[in-house]
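Write out this protein's structure.
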Amino acid sequence: MSHFDQPEESSQPQLVQEAVLSRMLGIRTILISGEINQEVAERVISQALILDAASHDPIRTIITSQGGHVDSGYAIYDVLRYLESPVISVGAGWVASIAVPILLAAEKQHRCSLPNTRFLLHQPSGGAGGQASDVRIAAQEILKLRERLNRLIADETGKSLEQVSEDSDRNFWMSAEEALQYGLISKIITSQTEIA
């Protein structure tokens, strides 16, 4: 075999990644992991739309993320809500910041968590520089974004907006049990057979 017949070493990880993605789509599961950004949003949205077009059987999302770009997270949330297929969210590891609203894209009875998952609510942050007027506009946008996130969490958990605003004013960590009591999830599971 000549060196032309052998796959390049650099393509091996990509081939493995494509094989894993194919298998995940085959079992109607989307992994949402790492920092939420535009690239992750495009990947998740594409997979969700492909699965929804194939059938309206449930789509499972496994979420393990420290959060990230708010608008990318909202894009994922909105598209998961837009689908005709029911969405099942499973929190794993940690579900923090904008990853929490992504988890909330599933109806409450379809939101669950593995036992050792931790959840984090906090207010959005952002750096702004430049002229005073630009800093003021950025600060106003962060306040509007905070209000929108808090209202979403309040609506989905049954907590008051005031309670969520107070809780998210600083880093507010919850265990799986505390997230269950808070209303973020409806069930703590140890096996996929427990998913309704």
